[in-house]
Amino acid sequence: MHIFKEIAPLRDHLKSLRSGQSSIGFVPTMGALHKGHLGLINASKNHNDITVCSIYVNPTQFGNPEDLAKYPRTLEQDIDLLEQASCDVLFCPSNTVMYHRAEPLTISFDKLDRILEGEFRPGHFSGVAVVVSKLFNIVQPDIAYFGQKDYQQVMIISKLIEAMKFNVQLHVVPTVREHDGLALSSRNQRLSVDERNRATVLYQGLRATQQGLIQGLPLSELRTRVAALCDSKGVRMEYLEVVDQDTFEVKESPTRAVILIAAYVGNVRLIDNLVVESQDEIA
Ligand code: PAF
User: Fold this and answer.
1) In this structure, are residues 188 and 199 in contact, taking their beta carbons and an 8 Å threshold?
2) Is the pLDDT of residue 13 over 70?
3) Which residue, 113, 188, 192, 275, could crosslink 109 as a Cys pair with Cβ 3.0–4.6 Å?
């Protein structure tokens, strides 16, 4: 695997590959890699000649300095995992490389960046959009791979690609879960064993909401029930919402919907979601 910390040599390397007609798949990450990320790498390897991964903990998408400081950083281990997965190129820039001498830039998305994650993490999606734009400009991939676990992020990236006319195809890969339903996340590394076990309540809450909606229960009641379920495990639910898969409008029916949850397990904030196509799927 070729490892680059600077933009110019990475660009030179990719230029020579591109002139040989190689297609480039790109997996942007913040490191602390797990099987979910490796699923993205595998998807890219299956569709492209060359797979590029980036590892960069982007400061502009963190509103809380403590969250940024505590974000897990495991570069050596990540490099081993990427080598094992036969990733071709790793880009792991510093803050200086990504932001030095650049004017602070923000990108807004009408309503989508102000609801759910956007409401509880103001400025988060602007930071994501700015860094992903920079990464797309640097790597110029044919296809970029993102995990469905960050559902709202995927919607933001899709709007970004459309608005900025990036010549990139977006490929979304389903969430990878542990045997008990816990969605894989880099933040899980910050959980104690006890917190890790209690964290399954997010997935249980999503399933309970799905069942409740099928039974015709109002979302307000389901929200109260899931918050109480979380409470019983010492987990603090931040939001539980049901939105249309495509428009992100609030929805009360479980057809073509996505149920989203965010909760604090100890000091660690986790998010998860469940995509529901139709009532038949659940029966
Ligand atoms: O999903 C992530 O890991 C990050 O938000 C991303 C897309 C790499 C941007 O920093």
Assistant:
1) yes
2) yes
3) 113
pLDDT in tens, 124-164: 999 999 999 999 999 999 999 999 999 999 999 999 999 99
Q: CATH 3.40.50.620 region(s) of the chain?
A: 2-173
The burial class, CB within 10 Å (0-12 / 13-18 / 19+), for 193 is exposed
Q: What is the DSSP string of 201-244?
A: HHHHHHHHHHHHHHTT--HHHHHHHHHHHHHHTTEEEEEEEEEE
Ligand 1 touching residue 131 (CB < 6 A): yes
Query: With contact defined as beta carbons under 8 Å apart, do 1 and 82 qualify?
Result: yes
Residue 161 CA to ligand 1 center (angstroms) comes to 15
Residue 229 makes CB contacts below 8 A (sequence gap 6+) with 201, 204, 205, 208
CATH 3.30.1300.10 boundaries in the chain: 186-276
Q: Could you give the CA distance from residue 35 to residue 30 in angstroms, rounded to a whole number?
A: 14
Give the residue among 200, 189, 209 at the shortest CA–CA distance from 252: 209
Q: Which is the closest atom of ligand 1 to the Cα of 29?
A: 8
The finding on whether 150 has its CB within 6 A of some atom of ligand 1 is: yes
The architecture (CATH level 2) of 2-173 comes to 3-Layer(aba) Sandwich (3.40)
CATH topology of domain 186-276: Pantoate--beta-alanine Ligase; Chain: A,domain 2 (3.30.1300)
pTM above 0.90, yes or no: yes
2 Cα to the center of ligand 1, angstroms = 21
